[in-house]
Amino acid sequence: MSKTYLLFRIQIINYLALNEMKQSGQKKKTAITLAFGVVTLMFLLCTYNWFTALALVELGKQAFIPAYMVSVSSFAILFLTALRSNGILYGSHDLDLLLTAPIKHSEIISSKFLFMYVLNFLVAFAFMTSGGVVWMLHTPFDIFPFALYVISLFFVPFIPMCIASLLGLCMVYIGSFFKNRNIFAVLFSFISLGLIVYVANVNMHSGEGITNIGVMLANQITKLYPPAVFFLDHSSISAPIRLASFIGISTVVFYLFIKFVSAQFRSLNDIASTSSKYRSNEKKVLKHRSPFVALYRKEVSQFFHSYTAVLNAGLGVISLSVFSIFLIFASPEQLGKYIGMDNIHHFLSIYGPIIISAMLSLSCPAAFAISLEGRNIWIVQSSPVSIKKILNSKLAMNLTLHAIAYCLAILAFTTRVQMDTLQIISTLLIPIAFSLFSITLGLFLNKKYPNFTWENEMIIVKQSLPVIITSLISMLTVVGPIMLHWILPLPLQPLLWGIAVVMIVASAIMYQKACKATYI
């Protein structure tokens, strides 16, 4: 059995908590909940792409389904890999142990790329399988192109994985020249993701003036992801040659990139694991602060020193801030024209509180704030500070994060959107209730189900039980009133206020229970 396979197997077992499913008690429940969440997400992705493919069939453009699914799945892989590649490839906790073992760097990097490949293959599978089935059902039977489509599924993740990993590699290298490397890394990541989304949006609207829908679709698909051109039907080039070319190019790019990263792996990991080369020569002055202020500053420092935590838990706050700044400096009419919505004032005045609440609920560091202490939790546990002050400091950090985006959003909505008095009050107060609920729920669940033995921050930031449950419940509280408003003839504003009151009461109960505990 090769070392690469053994390392890959260990990563899969740790990431998916497979061993914990065999145990009894809370760990088994956590692992089962995680598995259920993954299966549910896969089902939703498959369902969405099934109906998207059916829409293309209704337009009579089923021949575009393979190229469309490759393009969209590759874009999704690029976006998701950019969020987690550095946490897997460089600077992870297990690398210190692996680098001291008699294992080649090529075996380490191959196992990590194989691990990322499996995760991204699931994304490609969710997109391409459901769409491919629709395509095969509405296309004259031909075993050869069908077989080639299935084979190409295994090669689709290669190129977007390499592009996203290259972005991470550039960030690690360039960040070493900055004093505040983590701040640069976060800014670079969000700017890169923003550019990716912007370019994709511009390219998807590039063919709107074309009258021929087939030409327009081909134009949009190839601009979103140029390699998708291999899946478009060209009369001059046969399908086997096109797909063989795609497989060959993807394999060569992937192989060369792994070879390059393997050769530079040691130096890149050293850069990612060590602090910046620029250090302040000023002597630090010790200051006396209250216990709460000291704990609060520690929480802020701990959060912003974790690249994975900021990139994932800060996405909602950053997105809301960017949207609000755009709304302040550009007119709502320009925004409506950009997203293809005519009556933008009416939409934002009604759904403004939900938009703000949804973005704030996406950013919930409190759901992993206790677990983030890791094996250093004994320092907090042995400190002469009450449990209430420790929890308050973690709540305050998350509230500060929300307050920045909230203030920008309120300024944008109240000055640029036409709203009546009740709508203004709803926009001001309802997001506060959603924010308090998501933060309190996350902290309450993290205190109840902590994980201090993690080896990679991504495990607690993206797939821990508190994070998953908090995200699902927050999503339900946001989507619930909208669905009731659409399905049943119920007014939206009273629904939102009713849910807000329930959430405030639930937040108070959870907070009191958490503070009454005798240990953290």
Main β sheet profile:
none
Rg calc: 25 Å
Fraction in helix: over 70%
| Whole-number mean pLDDT | 79
Listing every helix as H and every strand as E from the N terminus to the C terminus, the arrangement reads HHHHHHHHHHHHHHHHHHHHHHH
How many β-strands, per DSSP? 0
What is the approximate shape? globular
**Cα distance, first to last residue?**
43 Å
Unreliable parts: 210-215
Estimated share of beta-strand residues = under 5%
Number of domains: 2
Number of helices: 23
Secondary-structure content class: mainly alpha
Protein name: ABC-2 type transport system permease protein
Keywords: Membrane, Transmembrane, Transmembrane helix
Transmembrane segments: 31-51, 63-83, 114-137, 143-170, 182-200, 239-258, 307-330, 350-374, 395-415, 421-445, 465-488, 494-511
Describe the structure.
By secondary structure, this protein is mostly helical. The chain folds into two domains: 3-273, no CATH class; 288-516, no CATH class. It has helices at 3-16, 18-21, 26-58, 65-89, 94-100, 105-137, 143-152, 158-175, 181-204, 213-224, 239-263, 265-273, 291-304, 307-313, 315-329, 332-339, 344-362, 377-382, 387-416, 421-448, 457-462, 465-487, 492-515. The protein is globular.
